[in-house]
Amino acid sequence: MDSEVAIRLQNVTKRFGDIIANDNVNLLVKKGEILSILGENGSGKTTLMNMLSGIYFPDHGDITVHGKKVTIRSPKDAFALGIGMIHQHFKLIDVLTAAENIILGLPGNESLDMKSIVAEINELVAKYGFDLDPEQKIYDMSVSQKQTVEIVKVLYRGAEILILDEPTAVLTPQETSKLFDVLRNMRKAGKSIIIITHKLNEVMELSDRVTVLRKGQYIGSVETSDASIDLLTEMMVGQKIDLEIDRTEPLPFVGRIEVKNITCRNRDGVAILKDVSFTSSAGEILGIAGIAGSGQKELLEAIAGLQEIESGEILYHSPEGETVTISDMKAADIRDLKISLAFVPEDRLGMGLVGSMDLTDNIMLRSYNEGKHFFANRKNPRKLATRIVEKLSVVTPSVDTPVRKLSGGNVQKILLGREIASSPNVLMVAYPVRGLDINSSYMIYNLLGDQKQKGASVICVGEDLDVLMALCDRIVVLSGGELTGIVDARTISKEAIGLLMTSSKKGGAQHAE
Amino acid sequence: MTILMTFIQKAIGQSISILFGATGEIITEKSGNLNLGIPGIMYMGGIAGLMAAFFYERASAAPIGFIGLLLSFAATLIVSALGGLLFCFLTVTLHANQNVVGLSLTTFGIGFGNFFGGSISKLAGGVGQISVATTASAYRADIPVLSKIPVIGDLLFSYGFLTYLSIIVALVIGRFLMHTRKGLNLRSVGEDPATADAAGINVTRYKYIATTVGAAIAGLGGLYFVMEYLGGTWTNNGFGDRGWLAIALVILALWKPLNAIWGSLLFGSLFILYIYTPGLTRATQELFKMLPYVITIVVLVITSKRDKLENQPPSSLGESYYREDR
Ligand SMILES: Nc1ncnc2c1ncn2[C@@H]1O[C@H](COP(=O)(O)OP(=O)(O)O)[C@@H](O)[C@H]1O
Ligand SMILES: [Mg+2]
After folding, report:
1. Could you say which architecture CATH assigns to the domain A2-237?
2. Is the pTM of this model over 0.95?
3. From ligand 1's centre to the CA of A363, what distance in Å?
């Protein structure tokens, strides 16, 4: 081996109760390289990295850093070894400023001199080309700004080895490429970088080598230059899988949800949806595209009755031919019409599941009011839970496991499974594959396709334009709360959607029906 | 004029115990520990100080006020800190529920105070017979010279040292929380222990130290009550619900010691307002005694509605923390 080894893990094992999260895993990280770690949801990537960053302690196995065998008992030990981790769920304190978060837990002058600290941080920010105001409060920041704080925090501590756990899952394409530039700058500065991602094209674009885990086991490592997307997928999943979304023709147009000139304001009184109108059809997948925060979330919530509407109305044309004005109904009554919403928020926590309750109870949450008995009937939800677990290959010890013990992707499958199981007439999903591995993503795409064929009107808010264009029939484009176009997903180009995403109505964007 | 002066002096007399209690509870809560044992700990601190002074004065032929003061001060700090330590051991180390432990500790602390209060009363020859006159007069000594200035002297300099100490402690803790590294670390522990932990902060140590120090500070509120307010004696349940007022004050003060200073004055005034309001019946008196709580509830309502995040309680308040949990 010619280049210097930064980290070597040998036969590292970690169990949680009955689950073996890591089973004799080996890993090698060289100095000055970007290593990707690839694996499906629940394959143990986060657990493995947490043992490097001192959050978990391995049951057995050896960790060597810069040639010396080490014991990492706490995050403090990890910092001392120059290892810093940017977690999947950000570890930042909302009420503090970026600078305060960055210096958290560090030794130094007891009396805080924020001025000089901010100056130091600004120096670092300039060196690597970040975009950050150290004096901004975390709760005022976007997801990508928060991530920047996390990275600067780690660099400020003098980390030589950076671990990023699914950093791009919550970023827009523009933010992602900015992040990659920064990571390349760091590699140039001699730092080693470990990055966990599900997006194979990112692996190919950014990394020098790839290590693959599957079901807690080490499968192998390859040089990125020798790898292909097909090879990596096979290593990850253990078999060849089809990476095509099979999109069927939409059913003939039958209006289902009719949104008429709705305008909504957020809590600060800013218009977040401006005079938006469109009609979704039964038997189609209608995509909603837009830069993060353009009103996608509010639009779905308005339909679901969770967002107050200032003006305009929303009609529901039921399969039986009735027309109901749902914009003045309560959320619970709208749900009774089989209009369901599955929303995966940016941080993927708190998405309509109760962490401490088991799978069965969470399934029940959705359907308990259908019960006719005073005592809840746990039998059916249990059957349903078992079916969801099997059909979506949820990795869990049993349906009695508390949801918070599952890895993020598996939690998401339960959420979607639960909504789909209610066989909705209108199924709205937001970011359904956020952070999911490819296998699970395709499973979800196919589930949405099935619903469409069954005649449901599927409305899908997505981040990945390539996917939206391959999955949907029509795409509604929002820009700053305005509808700037309704386009045919089969014929439109990515560039054209991109243009609509940033244009404003006044700029003269056309409606293409 | 004189009645206003008396009112202010009496209000300040009421507010000092509450201020100590609130400052102690603030630093405790900033670590994420909701110590509802503070009212009990204040009883424990009070009786410990009284007992130390009592036995010292009994044993010594010619007791010296200053020594009695030192002994009782130390006894209060030690016993109330032990109360905080016990709370931590049960909630942080053994992960017991904070509300249950806190409420039990309060019940225990009040019983502890009354039991030993009764015991030393017996030794002293009967209820109300306890007297630690020498020590109490040391606590009650006002500021020489300055207190002789007309009006201002009465208003500002006529109190014992604990009064000034309570304000100094509140100012110091306020500064500590906002302008030091350890204060920043402590706040982060209370907001999100997992984040603090990942940043290399020893969460357990911070919780232990903040809670123990907080309990010791709160205990001084009990000491103030027996020494300066009562003049060195004990009446069962005499401290009343001042401990709960201290906890309510934490909310009113939005977890800021500086606010607790004026807040305690407000509470102190409201606490005795009924005495100075003419024409009250027994029933309407009780209504007046509710005022501090009514104000706290109003503040809670106002701050919970779309207010700044900075004015909310520490996010992890009342929750225990395990590192490998998720
Ligand atoms: N703290 C924990 N307690 C119990 N089980 C856990 C814990 N952390 C992870 N697991 C389990 O370990 C396995 C691996 O999880 P994780 O490392 O998060 O996977 P990945 O990051 O690859 O998606 C999963 O089955 C998950 O449910
Ligand atoms: Mg993970």
Report:
1. 3-Layer(aba) Sandwich (3.40)
2. no
3. 21
